Amino acid sequence: MTSSRTKSDEKRARMHPGAFLLTPVDCTGGRNYTNGMENELELTKKRLAELAKRAEKRSIAVKSEFLTPAAQLELTRMHLEPCVFDGGYEQAERRCAVFLPWEGCEWDSRVVCLELRPANERFAETLTHRDYLGALMALGIKRETMGDIVVQGKRAYLFCLDSIAPYICEQLTEVRRTQMRASPCDAAAIEPPEPPKETTVTVQSARLDALVAPGYKLSRGEAQRLFEREMVLVNSLPPKSPGFAAREGDIVSVRGHGRFAFLGEAGETRKGRVRVQVRVY
Fold it and tell me: Among the four 31, 99, 159, 234, which has the fewest Cβ within 10 Å?
């Protein structure tokens, strides 16, 4: 497959290091897709280990780009302390890892908040997270340079790396058919989102299929079809089997239904069923 890069693309990439060149991608099916995501996660883990070593060797704080919840979970399991997360605000889902040379080391955040507001709110469309993300990705911006997008009314707040913020302020002029303006703002202007709810449910076991079906009031057949179509993800990856046993901290996403974090088992009932704790988003 040939590349679609042009001279103008190459020039833009040199001028804006936070941008990347869009090239065709060969999507070849579920198995290769799964293996590709697993390989990508392994590469991310190696990269994070390198950053942790760099922080220790150079005695400076070293920061990653924005990580998915799955990558953050893997990082906590790697025990590369001392390490903290920075997403720009307390409830952030996508966050950067900050590797410290020693506990308590001072560091400066790379994350800035941009307010995305319509030029004229009176004629603005009602836009969704997908609308904003699509407009930003159309500018050729890496997803890893952007954190959460918080939509509130006719406006949205984007958390991104300071290196790409000027480019977004200059280039983001429209989302769908709404003329848009982007400018730096204080993250304190954001209304805190409603925190996820923690609850205890009773299931047959901690297997994925046993969690998904009753959790979203699905029949076993409906749940099975979701697994077959790879519409159920665990830490952003399709599980190898519906019988996969969830581990504490796993984030399970069910396309079209929602997602939840598995917090662990909380005992058994008299009939031998299992009580599990989950955090529903």
Answer: 31
- Per residue of the chain (281 residues), give pLDDT as tens: 444 445 545 544 444 444 433 333 333 334 444 455 567 778 888 999 999 999 999 999 999 999 988 888 889 889 898 999 999 998 888 999 999 999 989 999 999 999 999 999 888 999 999 999 999 999 999 999 999 999 999 999 999 999 999 999 999 999 999 999 999 999 887 877 677 788 888 888 888 888 998 888 888 889 888 998 888 888 877 888 888 888 888 888 888 888 888 999 988 888 889 999 998 87
41 vs 47, 114, 145, 210, CA distance in Å?
10, 28, 17, 26
Contact (CB, 8 A) for 252 and 260: yes
